[in-house]
Amino acid sequence: MEQSELLVRRIKEGTVIDHIDEGKGLHVLGALNIDGTDGSLITIALNVPSGKFSKKDIIKVENKFLKDDDTNKLAVIAPKATINMIKDYKLVEKRRVSLPNEIDKIFRCTNPDCITNSSEHIEAIMDVIDKEKRILKCRYCGRILDINQLKYN
Ligand SMILES: [Zn+2]
Predict the structure, then answer these.
(1) 62: which of 33, 43, 55, 114 is 20 to 30 A away, CA to CA?
(2) Measured in angstroms, how far is the CA atom of residue 69 from the centroid of ligand 1?
(3) 108/49 Cα distance (integer angstroms)
């Protein structure tokens, strides 16, 4: 076990999101609506040394398992993240996140004139036009979207 794993308490059931890019941990919490109001144990470690020259953020959430939408958000915010599912203190599944070809609903277009921001109730759909660079494009208005400015639905 890596020493960094020991910094945060083990959980019985739930999810460990590891290898989040340094500084993105709180962003991930917000995007996944993890706020602790349901009483679950949540441990957050920011700026954990990882390797010789880098740092990472880690989030452990008891009693939560990520849905596809959550995984897609993670892929956009923290593309190097790994998702570890824990059951009865054991790692039962480890997944890397990967960007899908399109992302539906979860982000809002940054163009205020876009029809998805009007009162038409049209769900935003974004095409992932470059997975490496994480460039998204709104399917309706064609705006190229900066992932750091996206707002969540
Ligand atoms: Zn748009």
Answers:
(1) 55
(2) 19
(3) 34
27 phi/psi in degrees, rounded to 5? -60, -45
Q: Each residue of 96-105: pLDDT tens digit?
A: 998 889 988 7
Q: Kindly indicate the confidence band of residue 2, based on its pLDDT and cuts at 50, 70 and 90.
A: low
Q: Please check the confidence at residue 44 and state whether its pLDDT lies above 90.
A: yes
CATH number at residue 131: 2.30.30.20
Question: Do 111 and 56 share a structural domain?
Answer: no
Share of the chain above pLDDT 90, in %: 55
Query: Ligand 1 center to residue 124 CA distance, Å?
Result: 7
Distance 135 CA to ligand 1 centre (A): 14
H or E element in which residue 15 lies:
strand 14-21
Q: How many domains does the chain have?
A: 2
| Average pLDDT for the chain | 88
The pair of three-digit structure tokens given for residue 82, joined into one six-digit string? 């790994």
Q: Which residues surround ligand 1, an ion (CB under 5 A)?
A: 109, 111, 114, 138, 140-141
Do 91 and 47 share a domain, yes or no? yes
